[in-house]
Amino acid sequence: MNKTTEKTNQQFESILASPMRSYTLAALDYYEQLVSAQIDAARAYSDMTISQARTWLDVKDADSFKKAMESQQKVAADLIERMKGDSEKVTSLSQSFMQESQKKAEEVTKKAADTAKH
Fold first, then answer.
1. Maximum distance among all Cα pairs of the chain, rounded to whole angstroms
2. Kind and range of the H or E run holding 2
3. CA quadruple 30, 102, 110, 12: dihedral positive or negative?
4. Measured between alpha carbons, how far is 20 from 18 in angstroms, rounded to an integer?
5. Rounded Cα gap, residues 71 and 79, in angstroms
6. What percent of the chain has pLDDT above 90?
7. Taking a C-beta distance cutoff of 8 angstroms, is the pair 79, 51 a contact?
């Protein structure tokens, strides 16, 4: 292989291929964490819903109705807190990914500019 081809291959690897692999890895990590968070949330919401449905099936008199209503209020409060936490988690994941992506883009731009100078 001649020196020009070797230099071109090194520049291609440095400027394009390596940063793309790095970005793809970061994106895959982000999507894996995002899907995991969504699955966890869906499981928690489903568990709450099923548990509450079972509570309502046990209503047989005024006292059990009162307990079911109290349980409903607690579940609603828990659900709101869970949704708030889930939203914050997704926001944090997204912000981290955006910052990492921006940093990688800046590094690639700098490498490309440095390579163009030489």
1. 89
2. none
3. positive
4. 5
5. 12
6. 66
7. no
pLDDT at 60: 96
CA distance 20 to 28: 12
CB-based burial label for 70 (10 Å; 0-12, 13-18, 19+): exposed
Q: What value, to the nearest 5°, has the Cα angle with vertex 7 and ends 4 and 9?
A: 110
Closest Cα partner for 34 from 75, 89, 73, 82?
89
Closest by CA position to 71, among listed 40, 49, 104, 98: 49
pLDDT in tens, 48-84: 999 999 999 999 999 999 999 999 999 999 999 999 9
The pTM assigned to this predicted structure is 0.75
Residues 6+ apart with CB under 8 A from 63: none
Measured between alpha carbons, how far is residue 70 from residues 6, 64, 77 in Å? Answer: 73, 10, 11
HEC letters along 39-86: HHHHHHHHHHHHHHHHHHHCCCCHHHHHHHHHHHHHHHHHHHHHHHHH
